[in-house]
Amino acid sequence: MTVNGNWTVLLDVDPAVLEYLTVDGVLFADDRRDVNITAKSIFIRATGNISAGSVSSPFLHKFTIQINGAKTDAGHTIDSVLSGNKFMVVTGSLNLYGQPTTTPQTTLKQTATAGSSTIQVGTVDWSAGDIIVLSPSFSKSTEHERKVIQSVNLDGSVTLTTPLSYTHYGASTITINNNYGTLDTRTRVGHLSRKILIATGPDSGYGFTVVIYGYFDSSTNSTVVGTVNLKGVHF
Which residues contact 56 (CB under 8 A, 6 or more apart)? Predict the structure, then answer.
């Protein structure tokens, strides 16, 4: 599929799953609904643009771009030095401004023990289905955890879809004092999910590539370089 011409297409209907999407015109996500684009590869060419929201008016719904190719695909050629598959190549512009969370990270308010499916984090603007990460509390750096939220509760607790594998400190009295100062050892909880998501497809063992690329345009005797502006975007 090729979107071309010097005009704007408002994405008020999700396109069908595409083999290969080339954008020469402008695709602008309609912020009255959640928007999804799925293609094996996407090429935003010199005059092309995919946009959602702006600096002053971030996108409030969900916008998902899924790169759906597999490592066995034949792939595509951009020019004599760039080819491949499962990619997003930008020689035009990609402008994605999502609504950021007001709580990108916090600390546990109470210690959460291994086997528990509930953590105390206080007031947050998170939602069911969001992904969070908990830092380790002990000397083993591997004791971090990535979890999915089942529910955010009125009492300041968050219920997880699966139980914790490790214990994480949360009591405010757990500090380490030495000659250099005081170390707060409470577990940090980071919020990873954003309204705008650029994700891999079903072949999850094979990631995608994003290339911001430049080339010399002999017709205008100038160099064209892609531009990317991202805020509130989750890869």
Answer: none
